[in-house]
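User: Before I run my own analysis I want an independent prediction to cross-check against. Here's the chain; please return only the structure tokens and, at the end, one sentence I can use as a sanity check.
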Amino acid sequence: MRRLLDALAGFPAYAIAPDWTITGWNAAYAALYPNVDTVAPPERNLLWLVFTDPYVRDLLPDWETTSRRFLAEFRAEAGPRLGDLARSPIIQRLLGASKPFRDAWQDHRIEGFASRLRVFHHPAQGVLRYEHHRLAPADHPDLHVVIYTPAAPTGTEIPPG
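Assistant: Structure tokens:
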């Protein structure tokens, strides 16, 4: 998985487990979201970071919409694999730590993943527009690889390192 992520140099990419723990990433993703290199492993969960990290909130100009969509996608994907989501450790932690998460949790929204345009407001690179794609490797179907490719050839790739 590490070699695959590194081969995608120039395109932010990361891998997530069924509970949305970020299990690997490449240098371009670390350039987009530098905290991934320093956040404690128990907090390196995509839902946790979206709802608790101010950097992520600032990175996403449509944070309100995106955060709720991520939660709806998490419900759709993780529920069948994790059982009773309300009892999962990450959900319990988020319910205690984030009012926006508690509010979104009450929506009970479920939505499957769809490739789409994502916009980021990077503090050094400015506005970045990517297509958001997700793949499941056949030999690791429990993982998803998320890849951001430039929405148009406008030089929005973040160089590694």
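Sanity check: The chain has a mean pLDDT of 89.
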